[in-house]
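Hallway conversation turned thread

IA: we were arguing at lunch whether anyone had actually written out SWIRM domain-containing protein end to end. Turns out nobody had. So, for the record, here is the sequence (124 residues) and right after it the structure tokens. Reply here if something looks off.
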Amino acid sequence: MARRWLAGDVGTLRRLHAFLQSWGIINAHARVRARRGREPAPGPDSVLRLAPLVGAAEGVEAALTGPVAGRVAPLAGHANGALQPAIATGAQYYCNAMPWVNCTSLRYHCTKVPDVDLCPLAYA
């Protein structure tokens, strides 16, 4: 019913709906507002209350093994800090666009020009 009000490709809308439904975000079992003199329909207020809360590790695992698995390569060695050599070696990285910003903990590294590192604010 609501799809006719959404603009966009039908395939994209279906993929978006499948993604939201896989995470339990779509509230298909919402309680209907009661009219005067009527009791609301029995049942949970929201599907979100029934969905279990997951941590970051479970969320990443679900994203990598879910219905869209194979599109994103898993990050090997992420849990043991192998992808953070700057922190392990003590090297300091500063943003090339804003040189006063230390972006050692989080930076966007240019793969074409090896000496370019940007902080999240400069990248946005």
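OS: looked through it. The helical segments are 10-22, 56-65, 85-89, 120-123.
IA: good, adding that to the notes. The chain has a mean pLDDT of 68.
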